[in-house]
């Protein structure tokens, strides 16, 4: 009887031990499952978002969207710091072999961008960081750079921004890095130079190529006198500028469209590329938001953000380029459709045809329709951005 009892307890104890063993094995096993490749890489991939495009295509507007979020370190045109520091503009002729100054700029730009993406600032770049707090930048500043440890909430006094402070900020929180830059400031005007930053393997760049109808953004630049040559005959200075602008866009798009074509094969390529058309901000924000969210892999508040900006009568908290350019040059969503269509009423048809001639390829790829008479140019019932885009890499 006693023996039987002890045998029973033995069995019970063994059973208990066994189930504990199985339980331990299972928890081990499931934690192993969690760390299977794929999951492991997903977890550890560090993403940085780049918004790059020609000026007047809505890059600032997109930047503001990200800057309105709390967990973002947003940098507005950081490469401008290099131009400012050396007191000159570096402009590139993409087809000429690079001279020494251009090579120097490219090297500096890539090193600085690497600091920014990895959030690991080198002391030797402090002179560029200084630019972020210059009075010129105040209203465009990253929101996080106006809070602790940079600025005192009560006195509103701000400290000098340097590599040490930036690195402290990065270590403290899981920030998303968002950079807005104009394409002409990328080394040699090429967005593909983002592939040459020598980033550690687990870094990935999500590149949003900001685009807009070339007739609209080139006209906007034209009005702002952003065409550089001082030619007495406006048409003479327009043509080379327009040619260069659109050939650069084409080169940049071609490079990434080739890459994204093979995206399925190389899922872990350093750069993921999509195009966002400014005109699509006036159509379906829900659908645009979903598409952006899918690309970024985290919620974007795009519909809420733009709807509040469009509807509210008060100015948005974060000032945009609005303050700098007068209201008629604003690209804020409240007047997106007015702004989009302005060229149709104001631009002379010869200029329109010049642009359509040089930018034909880009326009076709992106689904912008040409107009062949002054009547159809002025007729606003004819929508011109609803052609059939020839790429799938659109955020829409
Ligand atoms: C990956 O991790 C998530 C939680 O982070 C988990 O829900 C999912 O089941 C994991 N995937 C695999 C294949 O184990
Ligand atoms: C906008 O897109 C969403 C999601 O794709 C869709 O459900 C909705 O019907 C669209 N709205 C309009 C007005 O087209
Ligand atoms: C403008 O375009 C619409 C749509 O194609 C057309 O019905 C209309 O007649 C045009 N108006 C003029 C003045 O040409």
From TrEMBL:
The chain crosses the membrane at residues 12-29. GO terms for biological process: N-acetylglucosamine metabolic process; sulfur compound metabolic process. InterPro entries: Gal/GlcNAc/GalNAc_ST, P-loop_NTPase, Sulfotransferase_dom. GO terms for molecular function: N-acetylglucosamine 6-O-sulfotransferase activity. It holds the Pfam family Sulfotransfer_1. Residues 48-364 form the Sulfotransferase domain. It comes from the Eukaryota. The keyword Transmembrane helix applies. Keywords: Membrane, Transmembrane, Transmembrane helix. This is Sulfotransferase domain-containing protein. It comes from Clytia hemisphaerica.
């Amino acid at each position: 009887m006693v023996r039987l009892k002890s045998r029973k307890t033995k069995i019970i104890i063994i059973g208990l031990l066994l189930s504990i063993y199985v339980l331990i094995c299972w928890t081990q096993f499931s934690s192993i499952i969690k760390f299977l490749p794929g999951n492991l890489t997903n977890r550890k991939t560090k993403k940085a978002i780049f918004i790059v495009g020609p000026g007047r295509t809505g890059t600032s507007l997109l930047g503001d969207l990200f800057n309105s979020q709390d967990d973002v370190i947003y940098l507005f045109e950081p490469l401008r710091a290099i131009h400012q520091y050396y007191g000159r503009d570096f402009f590139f002729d993409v087809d000429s072999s690079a001279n020494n100054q251009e090579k120097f700029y490219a090297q500096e730009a890539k090193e600085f961008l690497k600091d920014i993406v990895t959030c690991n600032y080198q002391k030797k770049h402090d002179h560029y960081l200084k630019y972020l707090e210059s009075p010129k930048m105040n209203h465009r500043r990253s929101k996080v750079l106006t809070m602790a440890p940079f600025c005192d909430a009560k006195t509103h006094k701000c400290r000098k921004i340097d590599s040490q402070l930036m690195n402290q900020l990065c270590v403290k929180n899981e920030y998303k890095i968002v950079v807005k830059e104009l394409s002409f400031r990328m080394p040699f005007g090429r967005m593909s130079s983002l592939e040459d930053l020598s980033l550690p393997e687990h870094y990935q760049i999500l590149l949003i190529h900001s685009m807009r109808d070339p007739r609209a953004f080139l006209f906007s630049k034209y009005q702002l006198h952003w065409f550089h040559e001082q030619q007495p005959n406006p048409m003479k200075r327009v043509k080379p500028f327009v040619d260069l602008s659109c050939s650069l866009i084409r080169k940049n798009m071609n490079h990434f469209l080739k890459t994204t074509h093979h995206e399925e094969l190389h899922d872990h390529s350093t750069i993921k590329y999509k195009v966002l058309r400014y005109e699509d901000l006036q159509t379906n924000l829900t659908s645009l938001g979903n598409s952006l969210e899918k690309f970024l892999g985290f919620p974007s508040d795009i519909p809420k953000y733009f709807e509040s900006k469009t509807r509210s009568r008060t100015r948005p908290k974060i000032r945009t380029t609005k303050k700098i350019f007068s209201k008629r040059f604003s690209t804020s969503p409240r007047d997106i459709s007015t702004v989009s269509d302005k060229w149709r009423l104001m631009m002379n048809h010869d200029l329109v045809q010049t642009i359509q001639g040089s930018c034909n390829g880009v326009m076709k790829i992106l689904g912008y329709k040409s107009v062949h008479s002054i009547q159809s140019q002025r007729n606003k019932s004819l929508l011109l951005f609803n052609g059939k885009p020839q790429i799938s890499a659109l955020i829409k």
